[in-house]
Amino acid sequence: MLLVLAGCGNTEERLIRKANKIHASVLTVDTHCDTPMELLRSDFDLGVKHDDFCVDFPRMKEGGLNAEFFAVFIGQGPRNDSSYAKAHQRALNIFDAIHKNVNKNSSLAELAYTADDAYRIKKAGKIAAFIGIENGYAIGRDISRVKEYFDQGARYITLSHSRNNDICDSSTDPKGPENNGLSPFGKEVVKEMNRLGIITDVSHISDKSFYDVLNATEAPVMASHSSCRALCENARNLDDNMLLALKKNGGVIQICILSNYLKTPEPNPELEAKLKEIRQKYGDYDTMSAEQKKMMRTEYRETERKYKKYATVQDAVDHIDHVVQVIGIDYVGIGTDFDGGGGIEGCRTVSDMKNITIELLRRGYSKQDIEKIWGGNVMRVLRKVEEIAKGKA
């Protein structure tokens, strides 16, 4: 539902009309959702509205979102050959589920592999479905899997998730750094991604890993779902020096609309106690079965909706403003993290995406600015990554 402020009806109605026109004419891209975790269920159809989740094709149409990067998320597990084999097979199963779901809804959507694909698919009136991998753990120690995932459609790989792996250190591993940044194997992974045309995603990785990636890569990088540490002190966010380094690299930061990355949470002992009970009930997330993970996520969502005070669309646009002020309009976009914790007051699902555009208009951003934020900047990065890969072919 589009927001209309009381007492400002005429002005807000004009902004809504302008936002609708902009979404009809420019390419709009969200670079991260975790909805594919549900696609392994035989009854989950992206072509049908799902009130319990954030992303599906009908609501993308409602929200004026043309392209989505569907994440093949692989939770961290033991680092041994048998566990890597299981993680690899799970990744392939999720790829297969995405392909089947998109093909099943071929009248609504089409798989996208290049920047040109996204624009062509939009022109045809369909949704462009990109694929990314969240967590290089899926690669294990086998460099050949990078090409295998590329052939399956992966166009970015998030090098780590919540824990260190054989590629690099995570920003949130409670054990602290292990590789002192990017490992020797990690450097080979980045080179292989450059060779193939896969964007290196620096979300979730440690600060040292971030700078090591910039030293190792020949191509621009992306933070697919991160925000600004200057506005919210969170290890998952990028500080201003990192933003400046990102600009020098030619990359892009996609602002994540997950509350805890936008606004430092106020003390909420009731919520924390309830979430602690859920964690204790289920134990270690990384070792849970798929069914247990689903049940835990459902309980988490329901509890947060009941007790949590969410950040707002205005908070999210504050982060966009900050990036623009520090490094310029050409280096920022949006990566919601929908169905993985993302969702704020005013933008709970993909059907609400135009509310971000309305707030950008309210703050004086032009159509050209908004076109860059919503898709132009990330497509520039993808095109450059494609160009560098062609030069290596």
Radius of gyration: 20 Å
The arrangement of helices and strands along the chain is HEHEHEHEHEHEHEHEHHHHEHH
Name the quaternary structure: single chain
Structural class: alpha/beta
What does this molecule look like?
Helix 1 (9-25) crosses helix 13, helix 7 (207-216) packs parallel to helix 8 and helix 12 (313-327) packs across helix 13. The chain has a single domain, classed as TIM Barrel. It is of the alpha/beta class. The strands form two sheets. Strands 1, 2, 3, 4, 5 and 6 form a six-stranded parallel sheet that branches. The protein has 14 helices and nine strands. It starts with 8 loop residues before the first helix and ends with a helix. Strand 4, helix 5 (144-152) and strand 5 (154-158) form a beta-alpha-beta unit. The mean pLDDT is 94.
Please describe the structure with a list of short key phrases separated by commas or semicolons:
14 helices, single chain, 6-stranded parallel sheet, 3-stranded parallel sheet, 393 residues, TIM Barrel, alpha/beta
Please give a quick description of this structure.
The protein has 393 residues and is of the alpha/beta class.
Q: What's the topology here?
A:
Elements: H1 9-25, E1 29-33, H2 57-63, E2 67-73, H3 81-104, E3 109-111, H4 115-123, E4 127-134, H5 144-152, E5 154-158, H6 184-196, E6 199-201, H7 207-216, E7 222-223, H8 240-249, E8 252-255, H9 259-262, H10 269-282, H11 290-307, H12 313-327, E9 332-334, H13 354-362, H14 367-392
Parallel strand pairs: 1-2, 2-4, 3-4, 4-5, 5-6, 7-8, 8-9
Helix pairs in contact: 1-13, 7-8, 10-11, 12-13
